[in-house]
Amino acid sequence: MKIVTLILVVSVMLSLSFSAAIKAADTGDKGNVGVTCDARQLQPCLAAITGGGQPSGECCAKLTEQQSCLCGFAKNPAFAQYISSPNSRKVLAACGVAYPTC
Q: How would DSSP label each residue in 2-46?
């Protein structure tokens, strides 16, 4: 029961933290020009990142879509702990998304 409560609390905190969207600059990846960086789009990855499970197909699709935004998220104190966590690296690897080098 404690783990469910913890996941719920983290989910609520992240949902509140993800209120700001940032317009991404052109990062040289022509497939992501004009992508709107919105950490809320990564909500499907929350369980895999916080719990260490396998990411869903939706999670991988959103990570791929938001890949050019990951450095910005990593530099934001509200998200840095999630981007730099060991589980985040596992999720990125499982989805075939390169870990950001900022």
A: HHHHHHHHHHHHHHHHTT--EEPPP-S-GGGTTPEE-GGGGGGGH
**CA distance to 25, 47, 63, per residue, from 16 (Å):** 24, 16, 20
Burial (Cβ within 10 Å: 0-12, 13-18, ≥19) of residue 85: middle
The encoded tokens of residue 69 equal: 């935004």
Could you report the per-residue pLDDT of 34-64, keeping only the tens digit for each? 679 999 999 999 999 999 999 999 999 999 9
Integer Cα distance of 45 and 40 in angstroms: 10
Tokens found for residue 84: 């730099």
How long is the chain?
102
